[in-house]
Amino acid sequence: MLAVNWDTIRLFLHVLAATIWVGGQVTLAALVPALRAAGSDVPKAAANAYNRIAWPAFAVLLLTGMWNIAAEHDKEHGAYQTTLIVKVVIVAASGLSAYLHAQAKSRGAMAALGALTGVTALAATFVGIMLAG
Ligand code: HEM
What we know:
The chain is mainly α.
């Protein structure tokens, strides 16, 4: 059996938080038609319940992300560094669009910002895998 070390804990927490932030958004989006059929205010209630774990997960991503940077600092030059900068910009867009999505008043703005936060969350995952190599 392989040994468990701090790298194991660090990546486990980062990936677990990513499954909640990314997987949760994809799952909630898939559930919206059924939630809407259950009642006009049900999607909002479900989104509020998801937000109670989504934002703590995003905070864990930021904290373990900085831990990742510290742990992998010997790699941070050239293409790796460029990829990391791109990732941080994508993550910022994911968080900002999620916040604006929750504040949106019109269905059009809500749908557009919802799509943007989903796409940037998936992109952050993809670029994360690129960094992990
Ligand atoms: C939406 C937010 C984020 C998502 C979905 C995400 C996702 C991921 C994933 C899936 C990995 C690959 C893990 C592996 O295969 O071992 C990863 C690695 C990494 N992430 Fe993130 N991440 C996010 C935010 C951040 C942030 C904010 C930072 C930096 C401040 C960051 C820095 C890193 C680094 C440096 C790695 C490489 C770790 C290593 O190779 O040891 N991530 N990320």
